[in-house]
Amino acid sequence: MDPKQKLYPTAFNPLLIKPSRPLPIEIAIIGAGTIGPDIRYYLKSALPSIKLYLVDIAEEPLKNAESRIIGYTEKAVDKKKMKADKAAAVRENIVYTTDYGQIKGCELVIEAATEDIPLKQKIFDSIEKIVRDDTIITSNTSSIPADRLFSKMKKPERTTVTHFFAPAWRSLPVEVIVWDRGSRETLDYLFWFFAETGKVPIIADNAICFVLDRVFDNWCNEAAYLLNQATASQIDKVAESFVFAGPFFVLNLANGNPIIIETNTLQMEEGSHYQPAPILASVDRWLTHRPGASVAVPEELSNVVKDRLLAILFSQSFDIIDRGIGTKEDLNLGCQIALGFRKGPFDIMRDLGEAEVNRVMEKFQKERPGFPMPTKPLKEYQDFRRFIVVDEMDDVKIITLRRPQALNALNDRMTDEILAVFKEDIDNPAVAGFIITGYGSTAFSAGADIGKFPEMLGNKEASIQFAKDCAKVQLFMDQMEKPVVAALNGMALGGGLEIAIRCHSMVASRHATLQFPEISLGILPAIGGCVVPYRKWPQGAKRFHDMICFGKPITAQEAFEIGMISEMADDYPSLIRLAVEEVHRLQGKIPRIPEKKIDIPEITIPEQALAPQGKLSNKAISITVKTIQQSAAAENLMDALEIGYQGFGEIACTAAAKEGVSAFLEKRKPAFKK
Ligand code: COA
Fold first, then answer.
1. Domain segments of the chain: what residues?
2. Ligand 1: which of 337, 402, 407 to mutate, judged by most atoms within 8 Å of the beta carbon?
3. Residue 1 pLDDT more than 90?
């Protein structure tokens, strides 16, 4: 069977799944060590009204867990990430107990005790005797295959492994393991459940260490083997070109040496090359630096360390894909969002080029024989989409923007991938049209990738070219004969909203919001944002003035009232269903953006303009107003769009743009001078 089909039998976007049961009302977590209480905090933050049981055999960790949640919620309130009433609800309704009998009403039980197979089996045996027949039971093991934990259970079909990453309350991914006696219903439900509660579930096959820990454990183990040539601090420094924190720093944080010994011993079933480095058993803490500190590493030594670290990363990546343990998409993304890699392993390989990857691997084969090598030409490990997933519903292709670490912000590769999907099926009679939606329920897309802006700010021509390059998808949609419908599952901001408004219709979840926050960055929406709304929905012109010039958001309801949104939905599956209907309704009736010039109401600029984010730059506003007015007066759409690109070129050279973009990237409020 195609490994992708085996891992994702129902959908790649988990929220397309219609769950077989509602969200749980009572959940239990077994184990109050480190990760159990963190899973509790994530669950209570996502679902504050649930009743949660935290169970342990000892009182002490339960007491610690109780005080830990107070610290977490206070910090979240201080940082304005959580309101005080929600923080109170998060802390309430948690039962800290040593009595398993209390969890009998739970619909979901997650075990997070120590990595000891007989102990875990005993725990599952006790749980099964207490809970209902349909309670889902999972283990948070990072390495033990599901069959070794659950085969002896009376109802293994409702069990599997759900593996979180530290810190479990914040780290996005959760591996959900597919195994032969776990039912598809359980798998689908958990896949949906984690996405619904804000995580990024990744489905992995039932191999020792699954997907991401095969990478992490061997990365750390290889670093330990390198200690005969370099210090821990030198190795961490070299690793920092690829990860935000080096292996020894992370091992110190997680008290991880015993874990690597355990997991690599388990992997030795696949060959003695996985043997844990002996030094791991004799060291408690590594002498290393905080990430980013300067550490001198001689070039020759740096190359030796780099080659070995890359080789182990690549070796594991090839093996995971060749054995169908995970998909290229998930491995590449998961390494970034779970393990802190700056780029996914396949992106690193692409940047290095085939000859260099081959050199590194051949050298590794000699130094560390036995490790998996690539089994096919390297380019075959590169043919996957990094930033979108594509599903089908009836005769409609659903494109989901998946860049959860940046609220699905767009980059040029993502827009290229969208365009490629359109082009692939443009003449396919079996495809009636397309839907674009966002991964998760928070964001459709938080706009263009702000991290890219500093490259062109201050350079008018480069900025104009950037805007034009970004416009490829929009210009293509303007000409398409097959409808494209935007399904706004959450906030649609800036460049994200500029894609959505160019689709031939928009439907939205009731909680979605629409906003052009560019002015708070000292720039303007350049890819039709100053043009298209006025031409498509002239009745909303005054609202658009407020949105574009002052960054005011509007709700889905307000957008519906102006006519921007055709239908609103209460949940994700209904949103997609409405979008599919909209694709069918628009067959042969795609509305085109009016070409002619339009009259717009006057725009009044207050002496000191304010946005939700603070004071704005009047200089930036005046360029924005001029751009809106001149493009409204343009005799055709292409001229109007060109005025938008030029306006961006002008605004990108202002001090306001420099300050606004720097402030965002430095995570501070902008201080505009003019
Ligand atoms: N480009 C690049 N990264 C973005 C982004 C964008 N447009 N929008 C959000 N992100 C990133 C953040 O930098 C953050 O990354 P980090 O975790 O590595 O720091 C991550 O997405 C989550 O965003 P965060 O700001 O922590 O979430 P929040 O819930 O506190 O705030 C927003 C959400 C949308 C209000 C805030 O992210 C924002 O203002 N984004 C910029 C929106 C914008 O101006 N878009 C127009 C650009 S054309």
1. 3-205, 212-381, 388-665
2. 407
3. no
